[in-house]
Predict the 3D structure of the following.
Amino acid sequence: MKIRLPLLIITLIASIITVTAVVSAAEEKEKKIVLTEADKKIIATGKVNYNAYCFVCHGADGKGTANPATPGKTMGPALANSKRVLGDKDIIIRIVMHGVTGPIDGVDYAPQVMIGAKLLGYDDEKIAGILSYIRNNKDWKNEAGMISKEEVAKVRAADKDRATAWTLEELEKKFPEKK
């Protein structure tokens, strides 16, 4: 009986920890992004700008536009349910701000290279709007929250001397904890 009691206590504690973790994960999944009316206006403007500048490569459905020169490939990577779109804000802001080159998830989109919004002269508000639209496009099952023009400005200031597009390898080395 003496041996079984500690084992029973350990089993009970492990069960409580497991149930707590499962409940916490379920609660986290149930959290929904609540958008204000101001957020919805920013997203609507972001959609207009996305359709003017981004959809050509990434598609109206966010899954990438078919590349007529290379059957079976798209002109740009999917943004719908993308870990980079839904992940760390600093990384996706840097990708849009400066562009990205090289393989993305094992696919080389050359000769297309995403030209950075900084080079195109986009201001922080336009970049924030486009990213907020992409990150909150429910048709694409994206729900990741807003990006503010202040967050974009912070990244712009931090990378003010950068003149070239990022590679994903560079970003992963710079931000290993944010993969």
Summary: The longest strand covers residues 99-100. The radius of gyration is 21 Å. Strands lie at 99-100, 114-115.
